[in-house]
Amino acid sequence: MAIESTLLIVKPDGVRRGLVGEILRRAEAKGLTIDALELRVIERATAEEHYGEHRDKPFFSELVDFIIGGPVVVGKLSGESAITCWRTLMGPTDPVDAPPGSIRGDYATVIGENIVHGSDSPESAARELKLFFGG
Fold first, then answer.
1. d(C-alpha 103, C-alpha 31), whole Å
2. Max CA pair span of the chain
3. H-assigned helices in the chain
């Protein structure tokens, strides 16, 4: 297996609820390495670019407004199969479908505030990591 990297975002609801430490603990316990970590408020233009594939969907403005609505923690995780590992730890996008033991299964109840984000493919990871960390 190849070492890969993925973007982690602890969304405003996760930061507000004090879940950052628990989320990072789970990533590290899984064997993922935290290569970069930053607390920031995402600018609207960055959020719109990040969610660009959803631009024509009715929930686009709600996504953007939520992610810029408070501080987030953005991070770069790496490890073997990091993208799949992180997505499994997060659980499905809709927390109602997320199994107990996953981050969303344990801490979220609604799709609009689902605690965390992770890249869904190597291509997305490359684009998202460049958007948030440059290079």
1. 16
2. 38
3. 12-16, 20-30, 44-50, 60-67, 82-90, 103-107, 122-133
Whose structure tokens read 């594939």? Answer: 53
Catalytic residue among 50, 76, 104, 117: 117
- pLDDT by position in tens, the chain (length 135): 689 999 999 999 999 999 999 999 999 999 999 999 999 999 999 999 999 999 999 999 999 999 999 999 999 999 999 999 999 999 999 999 999 999 999 999 999 899 999 999 999 999 999 999 996
DSSP character at residue 127 = H
Which architecture does CATH list for 3-133? 2-Layer Sandwich (3.30)
Is 117 considered catalytic here?
Answer: yes
Can you read off the two tokens belonging to residue 84?
């799949």
